[in-house]
Amino acid sequence: MKKYPIQLKNNTTIKITQEELDEFSQTLKGAIITPDDHEYDLFRKVWNGTVDKHPGLIARCRGVADVIRAVNFARKHGLLVSVRGGGHNVSGSAVVDQGLVIDLSEMRTVKVDPEERTAWAQGGALLGDLDHETTAFGLAAPVGVVSETGVAGLTLHGGVGWLLRKHGMAIDNLKSVDLVTSDGKLVKASKDQYQDLFWALRGGGGNFGVVTALEFHLHPIEPTVSFIMPLFPIEDANKVIHFTREYMQTAPNDLMLLGIYWTVPELEGIPKESVGKPTISLVGCYSGPRDKANEVIKPLLEISEPLVDLSGEVSWTEAQSMLDEDYPEGKYYYWKSVYLDRLEDEVLEIIKTYNLNKPSQESTIDIWFLGGAMQDVETSETAFANRHHSYMVAIEGNWSDPNMNKQNIQWARDLYNELKPYSSGGIYLNFPGFVEEQSEIRQGAYGENLDRLQEIKEKYDPSGLFTGLMDFSRK
Ligand SMILES: Cc1cc2nc3c(=O)[nH]c(=O)nc-3n(C[C@H](O)[C@H](O)[C@H](O)COP(=O)(O)OP(=O)(O)OC[C@H]3O[C@@H](n4cnc5c(N)ncnc54)[C@H](O)[C@@H]3O)c2cc1C
User: Is residue 207 part of a domain?
Assistant: First the structure.
């Protein structure tokens, strides 16, 4: 009889028999995928092509009952577990080598209550699923800026996007979270119930159980918003960043901006003579009153003479998917992040030099101009510890040639190390590289909240069934 080797938490391997597997399989609505299945390669892969993990089993859950049974199966056999939401985390933590993947990608239902202005999204929903439903009622949830990203992973680690300055991070708009804990129990964590869990889930990541649904407070959104995207010559980079840095001090919170160092791509609307040139671009969204849009955006478009200006008025769902085509599934990615409180010229020079010398023209260096509602919340109010920095630099190594993995990863790591001395500390878990430096990242991500997170972990997952991105043990 066929047996499936599966790795245990203690690093030993057991073999699950076909009989045990059949028994497990019969309790689920969704499919169990083993390495023998022809769909195995399809379902073990995640968005980042550099991730090549081989799980022992994949449970493609179709609902809460499936999740409970998968958790119970994992606990009974002591299996290593990973949880897959949208499968977009660059680290590939959604998949575990030889262990059990609890795959929620068939759980993407979203329901909106327009009276209460709330949305309930299943644990495998993507941002596009959420936006599709909420915009039918003129409402939006503050999440991220690419529609194919998973709602759960993005939110559990913070969640920054076009409504960040206006309404805060995704976690700041969470009303409740449905979670299957390590003992196979479904709980609803909110401000009124399981308050400690609710605190931990807002920034603590996927360490506390399987999130089967997230409920968000929604906000009215105009039928159209302004998408901002002038591409300036790289020679004007300092001028653009200096101006934006000052401008954002007094700009309305309806405006959210990134300064992106990259290379002009071959896209519709881009003049041929600009393609392939290094550029500094402002990319952002103004979601405030329409009659104020021009007044707010015009000064940004006039900082210098753009090579091309791709700005325009678009629907909310268009704004949310404007960058999708830059991040195709299966290409190669390595992203890291550094928080800064000041943007000195020295830092801008380093960024400019790395942009000019990158091994892949697809890579970008993005300065997020943080602030606004994100900073109206105290650090101790949620597990997210990095609210009060002024800027986040996201280093995006993006490339198409798998033979260039080493060079591109090294480029991103080198830039990260060069920027670290200027950093005010902290790490954003949604851009975590391959989470190589566990203790540095854990301290950087959770800071003063780490002790409380570890206590909550011990209370709800004493055997350490869920590893999430981070190892929470007190080693
Ligand atoms: C193209 C692209 C654009 C992005 N843009 C933004 C952005 O604008 N803003 C931003 O903040 N981030 C952004 N990110 C980063 C993104 O938020 C993270 O990669 C996030 O972790 C992805 O969530 P996911 O569910 O797709 O990931 P997955 O890889 O499925 O999950 C990542 C981890 O989250 C946990 N997890 C996921 N789902 C669950 C669940 N249901 N229950 C328990 N744990 C779970 C698990 O620990 C898992 O290992 C972007 C990423 C990509 C690839």
Answer: yes
